[in-house]
Amino acid sequence: MSVLGKAYYALCGTRWGHAAARWTVGGLRRAGFLGRFQFPLDALSLDHRCVRALTTLWSRIHWSSGDGMMPAEELLAMYRFAATWPVRGATVEVGAWVGLTTSYLAAASASRDDGKVYAVDTFEGTKEGGTHYPSVAKFGGRTLDAFEDQIRRAGMTDRVTPLVGMSGEVAERYAGGPIRMLLIDADHSYEGVRADFERWSPHVAPGGLIVFHDYLIPDVAHFIDGLDEDRDEIIIDPGRVLPNVFAVTRRAGPIMTASVRADVSVSTVGYAHVVSP
Ligand SMILES: C[S@@+](CC[C@H](N)C(=O)[O-])C[C@H]1O[C@@H](n2cnc3c(N)ncnc32)[C@H](O)[C@@H]1O
Known about the structure:
This protein is of the alpha/beta class. It folds into 2 domains: 3-60, no CATH class; 72-250, Vaccinia Virus protein VP39 (Rossmann fold, 3-Layer(aba) Sandwich), CATH 3.40.50. Helices cover 38% and strands 17% of the residues. The chain is built from 10 helices and 7 strands. It has helices at 3-12, 15-30, 38-42, 48-60, 72-84, 100-111, 144-153, 167-173, 190-200, 218-225; strands spanning 90-94, 117-121, 160-164, 179-184, 204-213, 234-242, 245-250. It has a 7-stranded mixed sheet with strand order 3-2-1-4-5-7-6, with helices on both faces. Helix 7 links the parallel strand 2 (117-121) and strand 3. Helix 4 runs antiparallel to helix 6 (100-111), helix 5 (72-84) packs parallel to helix 6 (100-111) and helix 9 packs across helix 10. The radius of gyration is 19 Å and the shape is globular. S-adenosylmethionine binds at residues 68-70, 93, 95-97, 100-101, 120-122, 124-126, 166-167, 185-187.
């Protein structure tokens, strides 16, 4: 990273530097400048503590580095959720690939001195029906080393635990305590998303957040749109925060095993909340 970039991150890591950067960037934006730096600068809307943890992460890894599967604005949405959701506990990412999103979740957890981050994956790039992401070949068919490398570079080794195996098996032996944020991003078939939701949501703390990635995949949307507030012990809120990201909240009380209707509508009407910068 350039000296200028490092200095900027260091500045944003202080209370007054953050306030000054926010004020300056706000003014420049209102004047029509800085449009192409939307992502890193959007982060300034977070509070000082969250920005400090994020800029520390960026000083260790480039903010969109490596082979991550989420674009920048989705990474920031994940970070925003993980850093600000008002329930304490563990964070679980089901489908971690090579750990870029995991690094953001871990930095968020560090910023609030919260629980561990568990990354669930076969680390073999498994896809629906047992096929594999073609890009797994680049990692010799196994992504665990690349994952651990990424987490090490992010300085988050002590906070992150990879849980290796098929998601359903791992959910059965999970012993990491109540989950405050569950990110489902593994098998994107209807059955895969349903299985992940049913097996993992009983571990989610009351008031905890369940985030689905890849809402733009029709099978994923089909499952999410069939979630029923009355039957599934969830609240459809915050809803659709970005085109590809949908989040719901776990109600208090034991979750019912979801018997998801097959005849659900794929409509998204009414869930169009947007994470505002
Ligand atoms: C889309 S990638 C995850 C991307 C990651 N969340 C990110 O933001 O970079 C999907 C991952 O899920 C894993 N996966 C798919 N099905 C799985 C299953 N049934 N159990 C465990 N891991 C699975 C794959 O190995 C792959 O690494």
